[in-house]
From TrEMBL:
It is found in: Nucleus. Residues 10-89, 159-233 form the RRM domain. It comes from Vanilla planifolia. GO terms for biological process: mRNA processing; RNA splicing. Residues 108-125 have a biased composition (Basic and acidic residues). This is RRM domain-containing protein.
Length: 233
DNA sequence: AGCACA
């Protein structure tokens, strides 16, 4: 199917999302997954009856949105293939930047508001998500040495990767979504008593290397470029 | 299936 006759927009509209995922995790994962296509200005997701299972990701460039629509079409995200289109209208955060923003009328939106408020009482904290750039190049040395691993012990390639400097709210599902984009992915392992690190297993070290290069320095939140090394045997 | 942003 074509993108449904909707003209290109710097915001993409995603549906068929797994409705069991909590809103904040959903937004963080979408942010992490789509930031590979360009700078993201905002991610909007509501869990109201009408809007659950859908989200909007606002890019700073239309070209980034176009690439995301094409390349992430049907991407398995929390076990469901994403359905992606351009958004039908301009996002508020874009309108605010180009000066065309006008607060809209409030009709039956008051109930939605109330329902939202109740739900989000659980989630008090949220990652400041609008300032992330493309993943930085980071060879992992800094974070690695800070954690006590010295640079001179050269760790040989391994099919298992050792990830450090993750934000503590990272889940294994979030990492799976990122790493399963690369062939040979097998599984993510995290240890409850050791937040901030993870092991990601690939079928062999050729595939693990590709995944490492691709996601080295990738930021799940603006302050946590992930440091990826080969795990020690 | 479903196009919002408080």
């Amino acid at each position: 199917m074509l993108s449904g006759d909707i003209p290109p927009n710097q915001t993409i509209y995603i549906k068929n999302l797994n409705e069991k995922v909590k809103k904040e995790e959903l937004k963080r994962s979408l942010y992490a997954l789509f930031s590979q296509y360009g700078r993201i200005l905002d991610v909007v997701a509501l869990k109201t009856d009408k809007l659950r299972g859908q989200a909007w990701v606002v890019f700073s460039e239309v070209t980034a949105a176009s690439n995301a629509v094409r390349q992430m079409q049907s991407f398995p995200f929390y076990d469901k293939p994403m359905r992606i289109q351009y958004a039908k209208t301009k996002s508020d955060c874009v309108a605010k930047v180009d000066g065309t923003y006008a607060p809209r009328e409030k009709k039956k939106k008051q109930e939605e508001k109330a329902a939202e408020k109740r739900r989000k009482a659980e989630d008090a904290h949220q990652a400041a998500s609008a300032a992330n750039g493309p993943a930085v190049q980071n060879n992992g040395v800094h974070a690695a040495s800070r954690q006590g691993r010295t640079t001179q012990e050269a760790v040989p390639p391994n099919n298992i990767l050792f990830i450090q400097n993750l934000p503590h709210e990272t889940t294994s599902m979030m990492l799976q979504i990122l790493f399963q984009q690369y062939p040979g992915f097998r599984e993510v392992r995290m240890i409850d008593s050791k937040p901030g690190i993870a092991f990601v297993e690939f079928s062999d070290d050729v595939h693990s290397s590709v995944g490492m290069q691709a996601l080295q320095g990738f930021k799940i939140t603006p302050h946590n470029p992930m440091a990826i090394a080969y795990a020690k045997k």
